[in-house]
UniProtKB/TrEMBL annotation:
Organism for this UniProt entry: Winslowiella iniecta
InterPro entries associated with the record: Methyltransf_25, SAM-dependent_MTases_sf
Signal peptide: none
Domain Methyltransferase residues, every copy: 47-131
Identification of the protein by name: Methyltransferase
Keywords attached to this entry: Methyltransferase, Transferase
Gene3D superfamilies named in the record: Vaccinia Virus protein VP39 (3.40.50.150)
GO molecular function, one term: methyltransferase activity
PANTHER family: TRANS-ACONITATE 2-METHYLTRANSFERASE (PTHR43861:SF1), TRANS-ACONITATE 2-METHYLTRANSFERASE-RELATED (PTHR43861)
Superkingdom field: Bacteria
Organism ancestry: Bacteria, Pseudomonadati, Pseudomonadota, Gammaproteobacteria, Enterobacterales
GO biological process, one term: methylation
Pfam families for this protein: Methyltransf_25 (PF13649)
Keyword Manganese in annotation: no
Length: 202
């Protein structure tokens, strides 16, 4: 796979940030999973949303349920929109692979974002997840179904995706202090996403 493909993901989302806001579905097909996620987080807990986009609909829903959110995205334009919508929350321009916030969260979410990383970077992310997780924290992310790379399209341009094998995700989580709570492959109730929900020990 051409390494340039994965390096262009950040630039692509910044270039088409306005289109992304218009095209991103807001009917919250993810609601059932988000509800499972927050069931494993203490009331009014603090959630780290990695790859928060424009904050709608995911962060917006979490805020409506009484949680506070720190959102991280590599796109300055998207973070600007987040700040305009929800100025009371923390919104940071950052590459998820370089996160070192010095804060531990009650929930960590990497929804429709984690799978844009190359496989080697995905492996390293579990160390970052662990460093930002409180005891008893929940972690949720989505992936592909098997080990490999793929190129999709966004606004007519190539968009990189990658995935590890399911057994490797399970092992990486175990080695980082997380235990799988639930995992569904290509959930038909969630747009065909493959979703992982895990938690740390209390």
């Amino acid at each position: 796979m051409d390494d340039r493909s994965c390096r262009t993901v950040k630039a692509l989302y910044e270039k088409h940030s306005a289109a992304f806001e218009q095209l991103r579905p807001t009917n919250l097909v993810e609601k059932a999973w988000l509800d499972r996620f927050i069931t494993n987080i203490k009331p009014e807990g603090h959630i780290l949303d990695i790859g928060c986009g424009n904050a709608t609909p995911i962060a917006e829903y979490l805020l409506s349920q009484g949680f506070s959110v720190t959102g991280v995205d590599s796109s300055p334009s998207m973070i600007t929109r987040c700040k305009a919508k929800f100025p009371q929350q923390a919104w940071l321009i950052a590459d998820m692979r370089e996160l070192n916030l010095g804060i531990k969260f009650d929930g960590i979410l990497a929804w429709d974002s984690f799978f844009h990383l190359p496989r080697a970077d995905q492996r390293q992310m579990f160390r970052i997840f662990s460093a930002h997780a409180q005891a008893g924290a929940a972690l949720m992310f989505n992936t592909g179904t098997s080990d490999g790379e793929a190129i999709g399209k966004f606004e007519g341009e190539p968009l990189y995706h990658a995935s590890l094998a399911p057994d490797e995700y399970t092992l990486l989580m175990q080695n980082s202090g997380f235990q799988v709570i639930q995992q569904i492959v290509e959930d038909p109730q969630c747009g065909g996403r493959t979703v992982w929900l895990a938690g740390t020990n209390p």
